[in-house]
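A common beginner's mistake is to predict each chain separately and then try to dock the pieces by hand. The better habit, illustrated here, is to supply every component at once so that their relative placement is modeled jointly.
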Amino acid sequence: MREEGREKDKVLMSGNEAMGEAALRVGCKFYAGYPITPQNELTAYMARYMVGKGVFIQSESELAAISMVMGAAASGTRSMTSSSSPGISLKQEGISYMAGCQLPAVIINVMRGGPGLGNINSSQSDYFQSTRGGGHGDYYTPVLAPHTVDEAIRLVMLAFDMADYYRTPVLILADAIIGQMMEPASFPAKSEFDKPRLPKSWALTGAKDREPNVVRSLFIKEGSLTQHNENLKNKWQQIREAEQRYDQYKIEGAQYLIVAYGSQARIAREVVDVLREEGINIGLFRPISLWPYPVTAIQRAAASVDHVFVVEQSMGQMVEDVRLSLPNKKVHFYGKAGGDIPRTKEIMEYVKSEM
Amino acid sequence: MAKRFVSPQSLKDVDTHYCSGCGHGILHRIVASVIDKLGLRDKTIGVAPVGCAVIAYDYWNFDVSEAAHGRALAVATGIKRCKPDSFVFTYQGDGDLASIGLAETIHTANRGENLTCVFVNNACYGMTGGQMAPTTVVGQKTATTPFGRNPRAGEGWPLKVSELLAQLPGVCFVARTTVTSPKDVLKTEQCIRQACINQIEKKGFSIVEILSPCPTVWQKTPIEAAKWVQEEMIKVFPLGVIKE
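With all components supplied together, the output reads:
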């Protein structure tokens, strides 16, 4: 994905700041956010660098932030908000409205520990919430999970294009490690999205020389909401077919497969390297889109595998999608939640004990 | 003879779902008429609330966005900041603006957002069946205050949002009117017109609170309901321009 001959453009940035910069580079003109750790650097970055490029608002609440983003999106403006787990719970109100109203926006969740106030350490405990709509009503949002700062940049850029094309909120599901960590990264000129940028004829711009546009998720006439949900379902299906993203590592001839995403995939990769050195044929499958889940690809990757090990910074959330994708495989789970992350040695021990 | 009474272009020629004696019909027309007279229709973006006026966009003939309950002013902020040359207003009830959206109301006003807010106070939640609102007056019977609102029983006092907002430096215009007599209708139109002009002149946040009858929930005839506004409601919520 990294562009040829652009190594000199490498920068050293934290994931939080890099995601902010990526948004600005793809034309994000509106950002509203509310302070919450561990994503504060992103909000501060937008406050500092939105100047002259767009509108930054520190909102009075997460509820207000997401509704401001909804208004900005309704006006046809590329807009974004970011937060961390408890704040994302509050934003679910607006995310549901935007899914219903078919408004594009990017929402970044730099996950921390839960439930409740939890703690500020890295966690992957919002998988269920993110991949199953999250708010009320029948809907999904595409969910993209970066495992490096460099990938976070690319996925934020992709998220804006995807959001506009499908007219849907798109979630970036990062974790505290990705948000806080600094590492070299580069900014591509544009995202890898391969579909056209469509005119926003639905946007609210004033009904000059046209019929009024209405942004709504309310359908009270008999049968109209049923039809609306059918239309949305067709859209989710279209996204399922076109937007499954994944990465894999050393899966050739693998007997065993580890499945991990986000920062946990970095640790899993090391596990694969060490176990391969010990002569164990193991590979890594890393979903990049958590919704839609890369079902076809994981089935292919696991075709000749006996055991699948899912490792998460949670008590077992993505493992449910792995089990749904691979009903005939032996799927094991190892995870921790609350800031203590599964480390190389303990994962290796677990894998060996279950082999 | 010249035709003096015409339907505004900004109002669709359709029946509304509002009850007899309700203030919304008059207010929709006033809003549409002011927008026409100021030549704003082509750049107007309205924000409809959750409440009885939730489908106001079926009646208004310009661009409208919905908002989650209480978030109309946050949605309006997003629109107006992105499109500063458009004319953006919210139309909200008392449950929406003064209860679930009070934080959005105060902070939007305190930021001095260049917006116009039409605040319809009928002292109850109409659409959900007449529960107590923050603006319900002491002693008023509602579905959730069946014995009358009693501040001593922990049910609180009527919240005077206009007086509260008038204290904020970002707020340039606050007025309270009603629509229960022709004279009051004209006064309301004047105040809403001023609140719109303020936005065009980039003066900041303007709000007009309108005491509006809800005969259905109040279990009164339209005439009794109008009388109750004039005799009881204005004792708690005095009419007039509070700040300009």
